[in-house]
Amino acid sequence: MRSFSPASGELLNTSAECYHTISLKVDRALDVFSAPTLPITGTKREHNAAPTVRAQGIPITERDPAPSLRSTLTRECCQFTIIIVDDLATSDLSQAVKGVDAVIHVASPLANAAAPQVILETAVSGTTRILDACLAAGVKQLIITASIVSLVSPDDFWKEITITEKSYNPLTAEDALRPGAPGSLVYWVSKGLADLAVRDFKRAHPDLDVTTIHPSYIYGPLGSGQIYNSPASGTNQFIYELITGAPDRPVPGYDPATRGAPRSVDVRDVARAHVLALKVPASDAPKRFIVSSNRFTWKEAIEFIGQARPELKGRLPVITGKEPTVPPFATVDTSATEAILGLKNYVKWQDTVLDTIDDLLRIEKELAVVTQ
């Protein structure tokens, strides 16, 4: 099977509530392609926007788009079809993938979005139903947003090992459903189970060209046209915590039981990885790429924000010089990402942090958020 042809093929991009920023950035990264037709689907959620695509000089086709998209698409013209899907885990997806050459599947529930059992079932069934629909429709290529947490267990993150794309998260549904399991662990398990479902599907259907992208913690500014009820959601909440809270609060720490090691990547680099994956030749085996470029501590981020935005010093945690050291943590092997995917020049962590902070402040102003 041939890979997606940007000049003539059709691309479907799925997105869920908490993954719109990746989708929006993916769609912007597609500007490098020449006039593709891009049918886009997104789960329908109140106060949410489906993804947008920006490509100059191409007419737009709309079907029941979210209101926020109407204004965005009038500014950023593209050939574009919006298909509202109420629930990727239960809705009929046949029309969404009909005539599509490639699918970028971004949607997945985040931690604490629902009951643990629901999160697990939605993550797995949403993925397998996309796989089934693609196979039935003759889709040639599928790019899936996985995670670095689908490669290892939480404990492994805090070991001096090297994480590669060849491993799989050993946690089971029973681990996530035990009483008192934190939401972060439930999310960790959901991504691992979904990744295993992709592996098993690929083994049963080797002709379907499948790629999974495995980013570490993702930070970065939101995309144009995105709707929000609060300044931060998802992992951007960790950045927002640096400028919200009691004036004399300490520097955030790292609890190995609930949080991964300080490894991150800019959302714009994650988007580029998805687009670059469209050009990688087909393979009988799943193509798996780790996307992780930055390692900085919260203390380093606080010091940098204080220097770059001195007006925010009163909102930052207090550095006493007695902060506990960060425990040793794993390294990641991104050699395949660089050699095969061609992703090398990443956004620096300082730019990621500052762009995210500036975007959070913009949203605060728009929402008239009152901070301490």
UniProtKB/TrEMBL annotation:
The keyword Oxidoreductase applies. It comes from the Eukaryota. Keywords: Oxidoreductase. InterPro entries: cNMP-bd_dom, Epimerase_deHydtase, NAD(P)-bd_dom_sf, NAD(P)_dehydrat-like. The keyword Kinase does not apply. SUPFAM superfamilies: NAD(P)-binding Rossmann-fold domains. This is Cyclic nucleotide-binding domain-containing protein. Residues 163-235 form the Cyclic nucleotide-binding domain. Belongs to the NAD(P)-dependent epimerase/dehydratase family. Dihydroflavonol-4-reductase subfamily. GO terms for molecular function: oxidoreductase activity, acting on the CH-OH group of donors, NAD or NADP as acceptor.
